[in-house]
Amino acid sequence: MKCKCGCGREVATPATGRPGEYSSASCRKRAQRQRERAVQLELALESGVTKVNEEALPSGETPVQVEG
Ligand SMILES: [Zn+2]
């Protein structure tokens, strides 16, 4: 089983106990940080999109429809 952090190292599976998901503690931390960053990036993108939409459609104005 390969390390989940993406370093490509093989995770040693102990004979007893649960098999680890990461090759080492630093791998686990790295993966955790990457996940946190991904979530923060997602939130930033979402808030950014919301802001752009609000600017594009000011309250009280109807969206312009292009016919044709
Ligand atoms: Zn790793």
- Counted by DSSP, the helix tally is 1
Q: Tell me which ligands are bound.
A: zinc ion
Structural class: mainly alpha
Name the shape in a single word.
rod-shaped
In total, the number of domains comes to 1
Query: CA-to-CA gap between the ends?
Result: 57 Å
Let me know the average pLDDT.
82
| Helical proportion, percent range | 40-55%
- Please identify the oligomeric state: single chain
* Low-pLDDT runs: none
Give the H and E element order: H
Report Rg: 23 Å
Question: How much strand?
Answer: under 5%
- What kind of sheet is the major sheet? none
Quantity of strands, as a count: 0
Short description:
The protein has one helix spanning about 25-55.
SSE inventory with pairings:
Elements: H1 25-56
The protein binds zinc ion.
Zinc ion is lined by residues 3, 5, 7, 9, 22-23, 27.
Task: Supply database-style keywords.
single chain; 68 residues; mainly alpha; 47% helix; binds zinc ion
Describe this structure in words.
With 68 residues, the protein is mostly helical. It has one domain (1-48). The chain contains one helix and no strands. The protein has one helix at 25-56. The longest helix has 32 residues, at 25-56. The protein is rod-shaped. The model has no long low-confidence stretch (mean pLDDT 82). The structure holds zinc ion. Residues 3, 5, 7, 9, 22-23, 27 line the site of zinc ion.
